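pasting for the record
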Amino acid sequence: MLKIISRGYFPLLLLMPFLILSSCKKVDEKKVSVDFKERIQMQRDNDFVNKQPLRIAVAAVVSPKETSTYYDEMMKYVSRKLDRPVEIIQKKTYQEVNDMLERYELDLAFVCSGPYVNGHEKFGMELLVAPLLYGKPFYQAYFIVHRDSTIKDIKELKGKHFAFTDPDSNTGKLVPTYVLSKMGETPENFFKEITFTYGHDNSIMAVSKKLVDGASVDGLIWDYYRERRPDFVKDTKVMYKSPLYGIPPVVVHPQTPAGLKKDLKTIFLGMHEDPDGRRILSEIRIERFIVPDDSSYDSVRDMQK
């Protein structure tokens, strides 16, 4: 019987000194748990003292420390341009971010494509902007295995230990589930065991260390590591690439004041034209932000159906 783990920890050293989550196997290494800090107060200038902070949520697409590194400079940039303090609220799961946005406890959120589709349908979550990477506002799932693995076809993953990222992730959960459904299979019946890692980098490392036989990860993140930190992915290889899907967007609550939405959109859309903004974007391989079309996410809706 398939065993799905959604909580717990396993002690696997990542590229940085923090650990990946959730496994069914015991190892002898010392356990260290990741601290998912919910709120990170950005350093405030004196001019910000009496101003309400902009609440921005980021689900841990990669592990918490990495996620914070990616977004810290960008949020400082937004704070300066908006002349307003920023409070980063980091959550472990996409669902937690969606729930907070639905309650209007957030002003802005970076979400995955699947959670956007769900939030848009449930409470009218609105697209604000989306990043353009490698010349396109789309991305895809990569199925990865260890570089020494003989697995070359999805069917050969049957009876193996496979890693998903987040239960609501498009590339990390929905895509592999959909691919199996086209084969007349379900993850529960197809895989021997499933682990939720709650981070695409966690899944990559799990494959690298042979704690799992394969994983489905965000192709943009795997490509980012291959380009910037190749040692991190050197023990993995891509054995399947999915079709393209609308890229994870930046979203707001439908009741967000029109003036704030306009200001935020102007800031993001103009980052690539500003030397400081362009430098920040280049660090995370974003060419620029664009205004996305809701129809770009229809393929995700089709998979959910």
